[in-house]
Amino acid sequence: MAPRNKDRLDQLAALLNEKGVLHLKDAARRLGVSEMTVRRDIAGEVGRFAYLGGHIMPAEKVEPEQPYELALQADRHAAAKREACRFALGHIHADDTIFVDCGTTLQHLIDLVPQTMPLTVVCYALNIAERLAAAPNMRLILLGGLYHPETASFSGPQGLDTLDRVGINTAFLSAAGLDPERGATCAHFHEVAIKQKAIATAQKNLLVIDTSKLGRVKPAFFAEADAFDVVYTENGVWLSEEAA
Predict the structure, then answer these.
(1) With contact defined as beta carbons under 8 Å apart, do 156 and 186 qualify?
(2) What average pLDDT does range 222-231 have in this prediction?
């Protein structure tokens, strides 16, 4: 007989204390109930459990969303971000069509690209678009929609529709957190759909982050850790402990 709700929650807490994180299907199997029952149980315990990307973990392991201002983030770990972008730069070739994510990391990538290189760049953030607007040989596709001033980015169905019509060679993604088990996360939920559409559309997906993001979990999940062809940090190609 499956344990009652309170007993299940206590049993789940004990499992997480042992494992750190559990996939939903594994939790349901261990508790002897359906995945829907587990989801319903933890939905009323937001201060105790968190659910991200199909995984359950203690709520205290997830960093709360903090106010994010683009101008404040620009100087944080700037040298490391630029070095990570140097490694990613080799994946950009003349006449490519690339997707460039929002945030402050990948603006360094755009700064490193020779302005004379013929390139089509798809983006949805003003700090990226402003760097591209003056480049003579770069064609800019700016995805529109609702403007979010805290990240200087746009969201909405218009941008997603445009991504469906563009052939992307390489997508350069950013994240506020990357954990081998809990995946890639960001601080703002409006970014998720665009990131996921770019990943699904591009021939190759690269994640470019500095090492301060490793092991961190933010509220908005957008991809498993293995969704990327390469992950670059300021130290070069990142390998999880499992892969290593």
Answers:
(1) no
(2) 96
